[in-house]
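This section describes the prediction task in plain terms. A model, or a person checking by hand, is given the sequence of a single protein chain and must write out its three-dimensional structure as a string of tokens. No templates, partner chains or ligands are provided. The sample shown here is typical of the held-out split.
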Amino acid sequence: AFEHGASVVSANKALLAQDGAALHAAAEANDRDLYYEAAVAGAIPLIRPLRESLAGDKINRVMGIVNGTTNFILDKMDSTGAGYQEALDEATALGYAEADPTADVEAFDAAAKAAILAGIAFHTRVRLDDVYREGMTEVTAADFASAKEMGCTIKLLAICERAADGGSVTARVHPAMIPLSHPLASVRGAYNAVFVESDAAGQLMFYGPGAGGAPTASAVLGDLVAVCRNRLSGATGPGDSAYTQLPVSPMGEVVTRYHISLDVADKPGVLAQVATVFAEHGVSIDTVRQQGKDGEASLVVVTHRASDASLNGTVQALRSLDTVRGVASIMRVEGE
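The expected answer:
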């Protein structure tokens, strides 16, 4: 299309996440436009502000709810106490979920959007394979109960971060607990929202319908109008091929807090054993809550900030203890 003198407007997130660099290069080589506002967060004006309005700023973090299906499911679980399957069935009946919801609930859709957002925000190429992905099918009603006790809710978050020294970036999608005081915690139903943190503009929130025929059409039409205006004025839109190539750090280097639920034997010395394992792996415990009944106990541990690699080592060691019956859940805590 570019070689034949046409500009391109696309909502194909998978294509852009995988081959965005080649598409941008082809557009610029032929003095044509590539617009894709509808590829991320539907009708929300997000791509253009990141590409243009914030082009002179330094964006440090992008965190968002970019899949309406999963947000509807998690919101239903939170507000009604429903289990995952019950909430998914309702989402399907209402048309929010596809007959095969894998792309949504296993976070493939959100991961593609995270790759696009990270590339724009940090002016570097982030491949789809660079994005850590974890679905939300294992989130339970018990997880929401624990989150509420912490003053949190649970969201499937796409998180893109620039390292403090600016030398690398990370991109990840996974369920996480987030404080009720955070703006993203109040995003309900099938809506999307993206929270951006930058040096000059500070904190910005973009919110609105993330899917649906009319919202998507609105974003596509806006891009078409931009292409027409550029053609009439003899100009092109923003170019994006001259990016740097910052390394994408592995998930093991990501540092955050964790909420871990353990099923343990209800007997003396168990807490001391568990605390020793955390200490041996350099993971500091913030709070511990224990409930016991009939020889079994539930132990909920909330950590201070630790690397994902340290936490994984801790969990492996915990599983080897005779007194630990199982690791019921592991949830990251974000947005604090």
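For orientation: The radius of gyration is 22 Å.
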